[in-house]
Amino acid sequence: MAKQKYYAYFFDDKRNGIVESWTECEKIVKGTKARYKSFIDKTVAQNWLDSGANYERKISSTTPINTKLEKGIYFDSGTGRGIGVEVRITDENKVSFLETLPKETVKKLLKNTKWTVNEFGNIYLGANRTNNFGELVGLYFALEIAKIIDCSLISGDSRLVIDYWSLGHFHENNLELDTISYINKVIVMRKEFEKNKGVIKHISGDINPADLGFHK
């Protein structure tokens, strides 16, 4: 039986709330710039609203999953700011690697792309990208950063990217060419990473230190 989820939405301090289905939440936020996010605990959802619905949030002590985060690289993608898709890649303390790595290194990582690092320390992909593409790009850059800092653990909350696309399970007919290109790159990179004893794990969005937004 699926766990009950709670969907928090935030327009401003006076217009916000929590509903119990994505259908109801979608009706409220569709076509707006409201922030929204799902939670497995209603108290944590309310805490998020009370804190101003910030996406780059601190891991709350009220998060119902008792987990000490391992040292590693964490990635996520989100569209909650209403400006397009952003990708965030952090350590276990939610510090963005794009702000701590040397500028020349970041420049090399983004070479041959039109993407930039925004004021939040995230890679901005633009308004015409999907969140799933953002998650894929997040894993791609996480794998690149793992080589640079010699890290053996990567974690994210996208089942699609971690359990399917990066393992070669995808349908070309349903995807754009650049998405297929990045999938194929990630497949090769993941094999090499795991060959060198690297581990890629799925974690809950509620405890992901890179968490950028809504998880349906």
TrEMBL record:
<dbReference type="Pfam" id="PF01693">
    <property type="entry name" value="Cauli_VI"/>
</dbReference>
<dbReference type="InterPro" id="IPR011320">
    <property type="entry name" value="RNase_H1_N"/>
</dbReference>
<dbReference type="InterPro" id="IPR037056">
    <property type="entry name" value="RNase_H1_N_sf"/>
</dbReference>
<dbReference type="InterPro" id="IPR012337">
    <property type="entry name" value="RNaseH-like_sf"/>
</dbReference>
<feature type="domain" description="Ribonuclease H1 N-terminal">
    <location>
        <begin position="14"/>
        <end position="48"/>
    </location>
</feature>
<protein>
    <submittedName>
        <fullName>Ribonuclease HI</fullName>
    </submittedName>
</protein>
